[in-house]
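anyone seen this seq b4? input:
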Amino acid sequence: MTTAPNNLIPEAAPAPDVGRRTIVFDGEDYLMADSDLSLLADQIGARANSLALLPEAKADPDRSARVAADFAALREEHRKRLAIAIGVLRSPLRAAYLHRTVADETISRGALAWSASVPDQIVTIARSGIVRRVSFREPASIEAEIARILAADDSLPEEMIGCTLPAPAVFVFLAILDQIRAVRLYSTLSHSAPPTLFSPAEILQRLSGAEKEDFRWPLNFADKLAPGFAASLTAKDVSESLERLTHAQLIELASQDEKSERYDLADAGNLICDGVLHDVGKVALGVFECRPGGRLRLDVNLWIRGAFQLFFFAISGQEGAVCTVNRTEFEQLLRRSLTSPPAPAVPAEEKPAPEAKAEAAPQQAAAAVWYLSRDGKSEGPYDEAALKKMLEGMPPETLVWSEGSPDWISARDAGMVAAPGTVTCPRCGTKANAGKRFCGECGGPLTH
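predicted toks r here
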């Protein structure tokens, strides 16, 4: 999954002023209308990148003048702080959607932005009544908030289930869960026994309606992080996904004839279904990053807390997973998603080369200077030989950067590692390539 909208938050109509001001303080947060945030971003010269969370402003001279006057009237420290926040929202190194629900009764949506200018904090933007709330948050506070919604601090059973799947199969399984839920709701209203079987055609129809705004349904909830992905899946995608889900023992073929196939949930699928359809909280986190060549990569993380277990649905590139997680695995997964991305190292200032003398022997090209990213921090400079030595035993997806390169790339793509290393799954002990996020045997998250 490598595509994403240019602006993650759509522009809304100007909100009424609070006390006739366009910029309002609430503690350490700033409250502003969508259009006013964009107007101010244009005024301070904040450039937008492909991950911009603030759209370009529509021309409005009168409103623009009011925003400029209110901004100029702020104390200097507030002007600097607000300008930094707007700059991060206009041009983040990483951006994310964050959607949360509690007991299918309340929902909150917001977006997160990371930047090298505030390496230890995340700038967040969320709707607060009729305006947007812009805040600086520490990653630990966001982790604690998500853990509270999912009751992740409570005891979780150690019996684990899980599997790795292609990205389409994860969405197909969510569509199956929604189909089962719809059948059960209808049976409750009609006082009849719910049928448990489903067909590929029913799942394809469920996928086509994933864009509907109804956060109670897991598929619709997840689709808001990858708009249009579910609806783009074809009958062939569904057929291949059902085959993979059958192999993973989440579903099983119940009947087949010349015209149609009917499937049922297997034991593991039933366990997940019963937990998901009686959830007490859901959190979806979609993280966008810009990769070399201007490609956008999207990682989708969906946690659903059932009465007794915490379920995790994930998509990372073309790889996906469906599994239960314990508290330690949940914390590792969430911390990895909220960790600040490394900022490209700033190359040393180039000095003009001295004029070459006519008799001077030709000189060899200067050796490349390299940096690597570890634990969210840039390390270096190193020459190529030293970097290769340091990368021994490290994941091939470790990011490296050389002077003159436009972006960070993996050590594998840079040709710095001959072959991927291996890691051991902490859950089942299976060996896996170091670049993998999930174990192919049990679906559990791999630590690097």
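The mean pLDDT is 83. The first helix runs from residue 34 to 43. kinda curious what u guys think
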